[in-house]
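Purpose: get a first structural picture of the assembly so the mutagenesis plan has something to point at.
Setup: two entries, given in the order below. No constraints added.
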Amino acid sequence: MRDYLIECRELYKSYGLRPALRGVNLDIGPGRIVGLLGPNGSGKTTLIKLLCGLLQPTRGTLAVDGQAIGPYTKSVVSYLPDRMYFADWMKATDLFDLFRDFYADFDYEKAIAMCQSLGVEPRDRLKSMSKGTKEKVQLVLVMARSAKLYLLDEPIAGVDPAARDFILRTILTNYNEEGTVLISTHLISDVEKVLDEAIFLKEGKISLHETVDNIREKEGKSVDALFREIFRAEPMEGGAF
Amino acid sequence: MLFKLLKYDFRAMWKQFSLIWGAALALALVNRFTLFRDKDNSLFTNSEVFMLAFIGVIVAMFVIAVIFVVNRFSKGLLGNEGYLMHTLPVRPWQLVASKLICGIVTWIGCGAVALLSPVLTIPLNLADLFQFPWTDLFRGILKHPDTILILLEFCLLMASSIALFISVMYLSMAIGHLFSRHRKLICTAAFIGLYILLVNFYSRIASISLVQRLMRIDTFGAGAMLKCSLFVLVPALAFLAAVCWILENKLNLE
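Result (structure tokens, whole complex):
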């Protein structure tokens, strides 16, 4: 087994003149749950999209499971984007068929069982489903795979606290334990309890990459408290909160 | 993997066009009962509404076919659905080829429906059909087998022309995608630019004597239209290669 599942070297990405990632060097090993943490616009989604092959780096190299991004890496990555990506004419079962055709690690029966436990009727048209139900279908598609790398982009953003627990529980009870889960979020307190490692991304650079235990031991505070300290924004009038 | 992609593209196409093609053929059949012949054997209709509806459906079918090809590429590969398609373990050329083949088949399907519906509409007399000299026709074809070859070559030329038109649309959209703002405007400008480029290309090519000889209808024999198809396919392949390069190296699903 390789030491590192994700390897990034001097990774830069800019949108026109605006830099999104500035010289990211990163190694993440297998079998870890890693939080990619940072405020809005810090480059979390950009890094995840680069790992999926949805964006191309401006310069630098990145590899997943020792391979440059391409069909092989896509076959071992399970990606949950921050938006709906399916056509409305489909049913959930159509998507399950598609995933079964393209991903050898997709477990169709598990997907159907997950739908039942999440209260989703897989034979309904996606067009007739609510936004929340569609999000559940997308979560099922991602977690019914036995992938080497799960890339979850803001899986708990925009939902109420009860739903956040529900989503996190679904992720934790269904992921391949030999694989790595990379969760991007700015809702630290909700994910902190499940993380092995935390990566702080600030203005396109990694400002901290440490195990959660080390953070607690060295800093004497929770990841959430450290995050608030590092990313604290001063109010316009300079008054204290 | 290409066949698997085709399976889903054709399924999407069938969902959209089965209804339209069905409606066009059904209206053609309905119109059959509204048409009648006068003493001079000229055709008249006693229901302009059905005839107008039929013409409307045929026109709508071609408009929808153009929109379908544009949407399958722009939304399917460069829009939100691209988040799914580009994370599948396939090469960009397979995604493009699948969309292209499906687009060509869609337009051929629309053409076939447009050709078939008048046959369904016109009240043919069964006796006339039996009296038609079918045996002479088949004997003629057997005597001149080139006819079938020329017909097949003509079909290939039509398919190549459709492929060229679709590849111009794909490249225009891919060029638009390279920019972060005013994508639709740039896409339209790219389409016009590529169209002008093609017109210039073919006008220069057509001025070459060899091609002139080739294009002259009286010199048409087996293989002539095949060569014409090649002249059409060369720029189409160049444009598609550019599209694949953009999707492989410059994909930017922000």
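Chain A is about 35% helix and 25% strand.
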